[in-house]
Structure formats: structure tokens, C-alpha cells
Amino acid sequence: MTIPDVDQPQRAWMPPEPSLEQHNEIVTCCERRFLRADEKLAAAATEHNDSHAALCAARAARAAFVAANPDPQLGIPFFGDGE
Question: I need a surface site. Which of 1, 11, 56, 57 has the fewest CB within 10 A?
Fold first, then answer.
């Protein structure tokens, strides 16, 4: 390897262009990655929908409980200025 001359621009080392077989391998890996991501996305959407349904059911149960069991302290009259 020679040391570049001051007048010569220094070039970055570039790997050789991949062969068709290497390109095919890269495409295959990308396809597998895409399919895995698609499966994860479907699982996440299912989890999102299930968790939303559970949240709605929990809020409805809480509202029903509060309606059936009113807080007795809310009926106590408050006299004073908080001191």
C-alpha cells in the first residue's frame, strides 16, 4: 500500500459490489424480517384491542360499583372554613 501524495485525494475504502447470490441472500433476510415484523404487528394489534376491552369493562364495573355504593361522607354537611 502506498501513501497517497499530497496532491491525490484520499479515497475511502469501499467493499466490492455484492454478487447476485449475495443480493438474493439479502432480499431473503429482508423478507423474513418483514414477515416477523408483520406477525409482531398483528400480535400487538390484538393485545391493544384486548386491553382496550378490559379497560372499558373495568371502568364500567367501577361506575356500577360507585352508583350502587354511594360515599356516605358526601352527605355530611360541612360547617366551617377549613381551619
Answer: 1
The pLDDT tens digits of the residues spanning 17-60 come to 889 999 999 999 999 999 999 999 999 999 999 999 999 999 99
Q: What is the DSSP string of 4-38?
A: PPTTSPPPPP-PPPPPHHHHHHHHHHHHHHHHHHH
**Cell representation of residue 4:** 497517497
pTM score over 0.85: no
Per DSSP, the residues of 36-75 read: HHHHHHHHHHHHHHHHHHHHHHHHHHHHHHHHHS--GGGG
Of 77, 78, 61, residue with least CA distance to 69? 61
d(CA 68, CA 63): 9
